[in-house]
């Protein structure tokens, strides 16, 4: 099955079970200023779960575009290191707003996996929260799952919206990619999550937690689930890594051609293929590279990708070229990607050109510092200089360091930053941005969102 077919099969299945199919919301949460990016399917339904927003349906299903590259869920450092993490991915979900609860939620998931997708039961593994006897009973007696492929876990299987508010136990379903992959089952000491890969998380919103930590049962408990499309596609396409699925093939090939390598399994190539998805969708949803907030997360992702291209020997701007391939691969699911292709390409090219001016020089300085290093820690002064003068986000420097088994002196870096701020204050230059010369905001305008049938479309206007 292709990813597109899996996505459709999921939505169709839940529609048949009485769920309304709801379009993906943008990556910038419209209802939550505290959240950096939409990082789960439930985000657009948060107020429905809280009861402050009413919808004409009590069951919904969606395929939600998500970014986990900052804030509470940050998988940036995992990209290129695990088989299962992306910065951008799609989360398939079904939701019950005070409608069905544990029994149906578990039955739906099990039916979809074992009957619709026909996954062999002996390759699946289930976990529940240690306190959740009810879910355990449903799995063992209701679904008849094998008790040797079942475990009870603690904090991994408890979900909460925040320090207060709705919360409750989860049950998670894993797929065993087999003994060729190292790693033990969920909860075992040698579990690193890459042999038994978590495919589906089902959250039972059952309690309301108050400021004093008291948990009271919700009058109408709800269900929130999330299954990573790329992970279930890897299962269905009988590959271990998400990066081997259909959605990534054309991107990896285009990236290889653009940087001039033929090593299709190269880790850096995977990072680039991942990052073009998150960068493009963030720009599509109205984020522009800048030096703060969401824009800085985007800038960090782009620069990281450029550095990986540079490592592979890219001789010219390559990253922006991949937007065309992305639009081909994902344009059917997200038609707005095709509409905005030219603008996204322009924004990326501009950022590439800017960073190209300092990347080579900065890398030379970093490489020299590493060559002269005694010990395992790169000095805070070097990290600061790269950041301040060469536009190297700290995580980019950390990424280079990690490849060589080194770490950064973050305390030293913070000291340099504090001194920098002090100098600015002394000079009376309030609000000075030391990466000014790299700032795109002054040259870039966009007219924000144009909310259309629940989707937003951003029109980015580059006043070149
Ligand atoms: P993991 O433990 O593997 O990091 P998670 O517990 O953080 O996953 P959830 O927050 O439960 O993930 O999200 C629900 C589902 O979304 C997961 O079961 C998985 O299928 C998918 N998912 C989560 N994070 C990612 C990611 N970074 N890339 C791709 N898919 C993801
Ligand atoms: Mg995670
Ligand atoms: Mg997990
Ligand atoms: Mg989970």
UniProtKB/TrEMBL annotation:
UniProt-listed Enzyme Commission number(s): 6.1.1.7
**What note about domains is in the entry?**
Consists of three domains; the N-terminal catalytic domain, the editing domain and the C-terminal C-Ala domain. The editing domain removes incorrectly charged amino acids, while the C-Ala domain, along with tRNA(Ala), serves as a bridge to cooperatively bring together the editing and aminoacylation centers thus stimulating deacylation of misacylated tRNAs.
Counting on the full-length protein, the chain here runs from 1 to 464 of 867
Q: Please state the span of the N-terminal signal peptide per the UniProt entry.
A: none
Q: Which cofactor does it need?
A: Zn(2+)
Q: Which GO terms describe its molecular function?
A: alanine-tRNA ligase activity; aminoacyl-tRNA deacylase activity; ATP binding; tRNA binding; zinc ion binding
- What would be the name of the gene that encodes this protein? alaS
Name this polypeptide is given: Alanine--tRNA ligase
| Species per Swiss-Prot/TrEMBL record | Nitrincola tapanii
Report the subcellular localization. Answer: Cytoplasm
Show where the Alanyl-transfer RNA synthetases family profile domain sits: 1-464
Role, per record: Catalyzes the attachment of alanine to tRNA(Ala) in a two-step reaction: alanine is first activated by ATP to form Ala-AMP and then transferred to the acceptor end of tRNA(Ala). Also edits incorrectly charged Ser-tRNA(Ala) and Gly-tRNA(Ala) via its editing domain.
Q: Name one GO cellular component term.
A: cytosol
Name the family: Belongs to the class-II aminoacyl-tRNA synthetase family.
Q: Which GO terms describe its biological process?
A: alanyl-tRNA aminoacylation; negative regulation of DNA-templated transcription
User: How is its cofactor bound, per UniProt?
Assistant: Binds 1 zinc ion per subunit.
**Which reactions are catalysed by this chain?**
tRNA(Ala) + L-alanine + ATP = L-alanyl-tRNA(Ala) + AMP + diphosphate
Keywords, A to Z? Aminoacyl-tRNA synthetase, ATP-binding, Coiled coil, Cytoplasm, Ligase, Metal-binding, Nucleotide-binding, Protein biosynthesis, RNA-binding, tRNA-binding, Zinc
